[in-house]
Specification:
This protein has 80 residues and is mainly β. Strands 4-3-6-5 form a four-stranded mixed beta sheet, with no helix packed on it. It has a two-stranded antiparallel ribbon with strand order 1-2. The chain is globular and about 40 Å long.
């Protein structure tokens, strides 16, 4: 089992620990794959994950890219 992990800070200011492994696919803003180990503190990412056990999440796909206002509204803010 991989010990690779990320600490994610959600837009709500909550942090979450997430694991990644050799099956996790990391892609950049242009859709090109890169090694997940190249992620750095402060990078903005979008993560698709799955649960492993009760408290553990494992990243399936990590997309690096900017968080636009439109993205925040679509994913986190409901104006209805």
């Amino acid at each position: 089992e991989s010990k690779d992990q990320l600490v994610l800070k959600l837009p709500t200011e909550v942090t979450e620990l997430m694991l990644f492994n050799d099956k996790t696919r990391c892609i950049d803003e242009r859709g090109k794959s890169f090694a997940c180990e190249k992620l750095r503190a402060g990078d903005t990412v979008f993560v698709t994950s799955t649960r492993k056990g009760e408290d553990t999440r494992v990243a399936l796909r990590i997309r690096k890219g900017p968080m636009t206002v439109e993205e925040v509204h679509r994913k986190y803010v409901d104006f209805e």
